[in-house]
Write a structure and sequence with these properties.
7 helices, 4 strands, Diaminopimelate Epimerase, Chain A, domain 1, alpha/beta, globular
């Protein structure tokens, strides 16, 4: 166990108010509309989830943002698409972390380097306080990969509205 005091303080200080300040209702609506629009161009399914801070028990276990993203991917059933084309964009605000978890079908075609580039771009924007711009850029970049590998459109299988945990 490697509990870092700075990380614990960041998680305790990241309240629902801070999450709402980073992602106000107009931004949430813009993200929902962007997901709906880009999904019309391909077979992929994009979910966007934001978590302000980890539960203290998760901090005690030193859970990583990646581990939590994989858990959220499962909880939101992003894997439950007919063509295995689900992608989760997960933001853990307290850690200033962005993780992308893709279903096995998509991940086999894009790979970790493609997702890592998108995460870095989003984290840079978020570090400048540009949450809306960073999130929209991330959605567009994920969509570009999905459009390249799964170009034909189909009806959406998963909700477009961002999730706040």
């Amino acid at each position: 166990m490697n509990m870092k005091p700075g990380r614990i303080l960041r998680h305790l200080a990241t309240t629902h108010w801070r999450v709402r300040r980073a992602f106000p209702p107009d931004t949430v609506l813009a993200l929902q509309q962007a997901i709906h629009a880009v999904e019309a161009d391909h077979q992929g399914e994009i979910r966007f989830a934001v978590e302000g801070a980890l539960h203290p028990a998760d901090l005690f276990r030193d859970r990583t943002p990646r581990e939590r993203a994989i858990e959220v991917f499962s909880q939101l059933r992003v894997w439950d698409t007919q063509e295995n084309t689900g992608v989760l964009i997960f933001v853990l605000l307290a850690d200033r972390a962005v993780e992308i978890v893709a279903d096995r079908g998509v991940h086999a075609k894009v790979g970790s380097p493609g997702w890592d580039d998108i995460c870095r771009t989003m984290q840079t924007a978020f570090g400048q306080g540009k949450f809306r711009e960073g999130a929209l850029a991330g959605i567009e970049a994920v969509s570009a990969h999905l459009g390249e590998h799964y170009p034909s459109a189909k009806p959406g299988e998963l909700p477009d509205r961002p999730v706040f945990l």
